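pasting input
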Amino acid sequence: MTALATAPLRLEQIRIALAGRALLAVDATIAPGEVLTVMGPSGSGKSTLLAYMAGFLDPAFSASGGVWLGERNLLNLPAEKRGIGLLFQDPLLFPHLSVGGNLRFGLPRHSNEKRQLVSHALEQVGLADFQSRDPATLSGGQQSRVALMRLLLSTPQAVLLDEPFSKLDTALRQEMRALVFSQLREAGLPALLVTHDHADAKAAGGQVIELG
Amino acid sequence: MLRLAPALIITLLVLPVGAGLVMVMLPAFGYLPVLGGHEASLAPWQALFAQPGLARSVAVSFASGLVSTAMALMMVVLFLAASRGTWLDRGIRRLVSPLLAIPHAAIAFGFAFLIAPSGLVARLLSPSLTGWERPPDALIVNDPWGLSLIAGLALKEMPFLLLMSLAALPQLQVDKRLMLARSLGYSPTLAWLKTVLPSLYPLIRLPVYAVIAYATSVVDMALILGPTLPPTLSVSILSWFNDPDITRRFMASAAAVLQLGVTLAALLCWWLLEQLTRLLTRNWLTNGSRQRGEIALRMVGRSALLLSSMTALAALVGLGLFSLAGFWRFPELLPQMLTLDHWQRSAPMLVKPLLNTALIGLASTALATALVLATLENEHRQHLQPKRALWLLYLPLIVPQIAFLFGLIVAAESLGIRPQLGLVIAGHLLFVLPYVYLSLAEAYRRLDPRWLQVASSLGVSRNAAFWRVRLPLLLAPLLTAFAVGLAISIGQYLPTQLLGAGRVTTVTTEAVALASGNNRRLIGVWALVQAGLPLIGFMLALALPRLLGAKRRALAT
């Protein structure tokens, strides 16, 4: 949003295997504002790639290779210090917080003008009056938009998207794609999208890697 | 028949509690014709309030319930927040069921043996650190503030709250919440506290209330660890009811009503604390603080629960040591010689109580299991959602035993039912039923309905499918529920003592009866037997499915 990330995200010779069986090998650099799409059927290990990069890899997998954000080696850091934001199929808004509470949860502790940041973020996605609403009362599309803004308010350095549009219906999907990709571009974030939908890859408009 | 099951369960739980409360309420206000009370009066209350030390009894009961629950809950919550995915987490998860199975009295005795002036801790530190050559003259167990009672209660409540939390957590998508929070920059312990705890607490609220109710009115633990002059309110009530001067029954009834009030006041106080906590932490949840306190919380969370589990285990070891000890001079850590004398001398006396314990436990648990299965099967066949009325299951756990059991006896006697074995079994059923239900319901509902659809498509009737498909598939949870029921029954002190009029002896009543004497060797034997019985049940529950399902890989889990 305000702080433009300028560092590229580099996936250096990443190899992931399960019980000795090689799942995938990826080597790529994602420039700020660009989206790399990794495509493949289920079981091809694309979500495992995200887990590896974000720091949540199941110990059953063995992985090698580097993940760099500019000059920083992310693999040496715990998940919470990597600065990598995640967007899932499910919006995962916390049910014990209001819509505004969910957004504040994403804001860094010492942000100035928290109130304004939150209401501005809601305005941007057309949910201006939704601050105090219970997230459970929102439609699926509305929840996805709140989840996106929560992610962006946390000022990540890079974003990983795990089939974020697959649960939306067709009309909504177009709209969310446009929103997500334009916001990511505007924030200048390198992003990695895994999906099995070719239309996603087309809308992302960046490089595409096919797995499996 | 099946359709009557839910109503039957509710009646079985509500009627005795209700009747018991009414029949204690009446004499509390002077009305009990059998004892010559024909008109309402406030005399029982005047007599009660004239009792010396009453205020202190009430205060200790109230405070020990709240403080021990708060301690246990905090330990459990911090542990869950701080230990996710560590070896400690896996270890404690395995320990929690056996720890829960150890009866209150056994834990209380073992803990007393640890902390007493001549106990294991003092021996470990003497004379090197303390310089004590003989046991210090200090009142550690039975201290007037109820501190050892609070610690003992917290030890016992911790595994219960942990198990309830572990049962509730799978509904909460914990992994996803944590992954999301950590990707937003939250360190693991804070991520758990801010995103999982607010959803977890409402799910364990009723168990927490049950713990408070139990802790404010417990009798057996208070007899062993609690203060003596004056004792807790519950212990005073018991001694007044047992007073040879039968007119004291009126005052005792008034005191039982007072106990109900103390428990309700403690619950109300807790509820207010809940609201206050919610207010105070509302800002903290969303203030964006991601790291602060992580290290301290993690350290406390991991060590507190580890320490208390170790204490519980050490308590058991202590029981074993004392039961085998021959001559044992004070500062020596271990007995000079070990002997089986105490066991041999106790063996003949153990037979009758052991048989009674087994009979009561098996009968009440079998009845409870049958009723619970009927209710769950009915719910499944009628496609009913779990009823809101289910909170009534907690009624016997939230109304203090001492407040309604005396009334229940009066009610039973007025129907011509004398205290005896049958009444004890019925009484145990009240407390066994809720636990069997709670431990079986989730597994029952989670069983894939397609198994039964497959069965009926193969031409098997619904009743046959229940016996031939559902029960075999549910064998493991069924046996666990049975073991839980047995453990609950074995640990019951007050219902056995009162409903059996002291004539039905079990290992628990005999062990607690030893509390007033000071023969630690004997106590060690009885408390160890008491602690061992439920463990045997749990071990059988674990082993049987493996034996029976040894040739079925998908079942042998």
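fyi The interface with chain A takes residues 173, 176-177, 179-188, 191, 194-195, 198-199, 285-290 of chain B (CB under 8 Å).
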